[in-house]
Specification:
11 helices; elongated; 7 strands; three-stranded antiparallel β-sheet
Length: about 250
């Protein structure tokens, strides 16, 4: 957090306030993250954003001059850069809880459904798919992921979670996905400007053009149909570490 001091005039009297500004994504509060999403969607005026980020009243934010607004905007420039971030700012919302930091404890099945619905929602701009994405990502406290309950929980998301809250969660997931891509670069194959890295079939997932988790899952299970649910229930990081090792082994052959 950066400590800042602001001076403004109110009723002809010069006043000074001391406050803080976040310098990184992990310093945002849930309210600030939602204000970012509302701003991206064009739902919120600049003065209201200033109030949220400075922790001041709107009638004070409106008194800030153009130079002060410019300086503050420069300090918030980090929001233009979607750098990897391993955690969720909104930990709880309407009785639902986000995954733990670094997606610890998330099963491979939960990730498959979460990422697939997110991809469809973003590509098709489909609110029903966005609801399913959040229903897979945020679960009731203490409840395990169950793909049979996705639609019921998506209906709950549709009714109780506001559009700007959904957008904020989607934005945060984008940052977490970038972190995940950096952790497992051999799985999330990012093409360079002029060529694509050649990786074994059914293992590399292009972080830019989408994924096919079902195909990858089927390649893992193979003929072991009896234990397919056990594969799905394995921790995400266990699967990704295994895949990374297999890719390295194939690369040495």
């Amino acid at each position: 957090m950066k400590q800042i001091s602001l001076q403004y005039k109110q009723f002809g009297i010069k006043r000074t306030i001391s406050t803080t500004l976040p310098e990184r994504w992990d310093e945002l509060t849930p309210a600030q993250l939602m204000s970012v999403s509302r701003n991206d969607a064009g739902y919120i005026p600049e003065t209201e954003i200033l109030a949220y980020f400075l922790g001041i009243k709107k009638n004070v934010a409106v008194l800030l001059d153009d130079y002060q607004r410019y300086c503050i905007a420069i300090e918030l420039d980090f929001m233009k850069d979607f750098k990897p971030f391993y955690s969720f700012v909104i930990r709880e919302i309407k009785g639902l809880t986000s995954p733990r930091p670094s997606l610890e404890g998330m099963s491979f099945a939960q990730f498959m459904f979460t990422d697939t619905y997110n991809e469809i929602a973003v590509t098709a701009d489909d609110n029903s798919q966005l609801n399913k994405f959040i229903a897979c990502l945020y679960l009731p406290e203490g409840k395990a992921f169950d793909d049979q309950l996705i639609q019921d929980r998506a209906d709950y998301v549709e009714i109780f979670i506001l559009p700007e809250e959904k957008t904020a969660i989607n934005l945060n997931y984008r940052l977490v996905k970038e972190w995940l891509c950096n952790q497992y670069p051999l799985i999330f194959n990012k093409p360079s400007d002029d060529h694509e890295e050649s990786l074994p079939s059914n293992t590399a997932v292009d972080r830019n053009r989408g994924s096919n988790w079902v195909k990858l899952y089927e390649s893992l299970v193979g003929d072991d149909i009896v234990n397919q649910d056990k594969y799905a229930a394995l921790p995400l990081h266990t699967i990704f570490r295994y895949l990374t090792q297999k890719i390295k082994e194939n690369g040495r052959k």
